[in-house]
Amino acid sequence: MNPTKFVKPKSLKDTHHNYCPGCGHGIIHRIIAEVVDELGIREKTIAVAPVGCAVFAYDYWDFDVTEAPHGRPPAVATGIKRVLPDRIVFTYQGDGDLAAIGTSEIIHTANRAENITVIFVNNTVYGMTQGQMAPTTLIGQKTLTTPYGREVTRDGYPLKVSELISVLDGARYVARGTVTNPKNITITKSYIKTAFITQIENKGFSLVEILSMCPAGIHMSPVEALNWVENELTKCFPLGVIKNV
Amino acid sequence: MKKVLQGNIALCEGAIEGGLDAYYAYPITPQNEISAYFAEVLPKLNKVFLQAESEIAAINMVFGTAVTGKRAMTSSSSPGISLMQEGISYLCGCELPCLIVNVMRGGPGLGNISGSQQDYFQSTRGGGHGDYHTIVLAPFSVKEIYEFAKSSFILAEKYRIPVLIIYDGYLGQMMEIFDTESNEGKLDITVDQPIDKNWILDGAKDRHSRKIRSLLMNEGELEKHNWNLKEKYEKIKKNEVRAKFYETDDAEICLVAYGIAARAALEAIYKLREKNIKAGLIRPQTLWPFPYNEIANLAKKVKKFLVVEMNLGQMVEDVKLAVNGIADVYFYGRPGGSLVSSKEIIDYIVSII
């Protein structure tokens, strides 16, 4: 067996992350950086960071990154892409950012077939603000603001963003992956790559939802969080390519 | 070239002359002529026109285009501008140049669709969260709307700051003849050196990657950023105050008004002079920075000031700050989208002298 040498992607800065132990953001940042390197698009990539823990993404990626107000990355990305159509523009958003406060922007951006890519990190909680209920919180799941568990009669149902987006004509590629083990990481990376290629080929809107771990937010150990995402979260949010046209 | 244009259309032509690259907006009265015009004209010029799903999206699209260094603009009317305040705060925090136009209507709430000047506080005090200012231009004629729009991008880029143009719905709907070549209303922005664009995001080719952010979490970082902004604001205050003076040299009473109210005030001072009442007018063209010093200097010899606004009294507070107790400051205003007439102003002045 050939030993594989660890190489840092050019699109990642040589710095340490401030993410909590067991957090999924580090893995997701890295596979995005690998895809950007492999497609040779680092010099024309512009990313839009969210409000949430990944707000610091611009300290980790080594390409151009702007911040955006909470929930508005798709609108900001639209403003970039419309004037620089030959650049590769993507947003990186959490479930609070994209599926709660930013619902309007994500729906309309997808519906316009805006030629951008959205990386949607679903970890079921607002990690940055200590773990409140998110639109994607599971029924019965305990969070800071659902201390007795999410109740359908009060809080409604987990929002299935990818399925919702996939019915829009403007959405060309929609897939859901996770990063709980090397196999899933590899599959998710291939989704991200396809999403970027969708954009490079000017086909329109692409979105990859990634089920991720927020051990601190869901009050589990890193290993428990991994298992929970793999065994429980995937039951509500099935993995796979949802749309590819 | 001589033109006959409506205020809102003059705005569009001025912005295009000024190098507009992209326009994003959401429908609202009384400024719909602007998006209708841009929808027709911008695609022919290979510029971006996009109707956003909300004012919130529109201002964030402006933000996106602004980070690339391209010239972005939005327009709206009062309730829509309220929705944009978060985005404006971010634009100021990130120091991004752009043009935002508020064709003011009556408020509060849904109010009405008449012209008003009720957003003076919102415009000049920041409007959103945090310590910040935007440059606020207040044209009073169709020609000034044209000229201010034309110069707004240079002004915005010179200081990396959003420029607001605010005028009432009446000016927006009004038609006037003007000459694009005449000097009337020209802002004459002085730009010392080539404008620095070494902050824009267009892909990290042959340079280090860049980030644009207003989040500064390290010890003392945000305070330093705020002091830097303060230094910029002081420069703007020093360089960019614009005001017009009418018959102020021998004035015994000096009116202060901007926008459409200044047109009524201007008519009033000449009618008063026919009655041997020596009235003058100061008309701020920039509401921020405000002509405090100019008014303070006049207050050394003019004993009475009358502020005329189409609101319950907003700019009057700035005039009082400028006068600083050494002259009397009166206020005459009408809120809720009602126009003030020269006759009302004259009657009020006769009652106070």
Q: What does the model show?
A:
The complex is a heterodimer of chains A (245) and B (353). In chain A, 36% of the residues lie in helices and 18% in strands. Chain A has 245 residues and is an alpha/beta fold. Chain A has a 7-stranded mixed sheet, sandwiched between helices. A two-stranded antiparallel sheet of chain A has the order 5-6. In chain A, α7 links the parallel β7 and β8. In chain A, α1 packs across α7 and α3 packs across α4. The longest helix of chain A has 19 residues. With 353 residues, chain B is of the alpha/beta class. Chain B folds into 2 domains: 178 residues, 3-Layer(aba) Sandwich (Rossmann fold); 110 residues, Rossmann fold. The longest helix of chain B is centred in the middle third of the chain and has 19 residues. Chain B is globular, with a radius of gyration of 20 Å. Chain B starts with a strand and ends with a helix. The model of chain B has no long low-confidence stretch (mean pLDDT 97). The interface between A and B is large, with 34 and 39 residues. β2 of chain A pairs parallel with β9 of chain B.
Q: From the coordinates shown, what is the CATH architecture of the largest domain in chain B? A: 3-Layer(aba) Sandwich
What is the element string of chain B, with H for helices and E for strands? EHEHEHEHHEHEHEHEEHEEHEEHEHEH
Look at the structure and give the mean pLDDT of chain B.
97
Q: Which protein chains are joined by the largest interface, and how many residues does each one contribute?
A: A-B, 34 and 39 residues
The separation of the N and C termini of chain A measures 39 Å
Question: How many structural domains in the coordinates of chain B?
Answer: 2
Question: Could you tell me the mean pLDDT of chain A?
Answer: 97
Q: Decide which structural class fits the backbone of chain A.
A: alpha/beta
Secondary-structure-based class of chain B equals: alpha/beta
Biggest sheet of chain A: strands side by side, in what order? 2-1-3-4-8-7-9
Number of strands of chain B: 15
Total beta strands of chain A? 9
**SS summary, helix count of chain A:** 9
Classified in CATH, the superfamily of the domain at 25-122 and 160-214 and 238-244 in chain A is Thiamin diphosphate (ThDP)-binding fold, Pyr/PP domains
CATH superfamily of the largest domain in chain B: Thiamin diphosphate (ThDP)-binding fold, Pyr/PP domains
Strand content of chain B: 15-25%
Anisotropy-based shape of chain B: globular
Q: Any idea of the CATH topology of the domain at 25-122 and 160-214 and 238-244 in chain A?
A: Rossmann fold
Low-confidence spans of chain B: pLDDT under 50, at least 5 residues? none
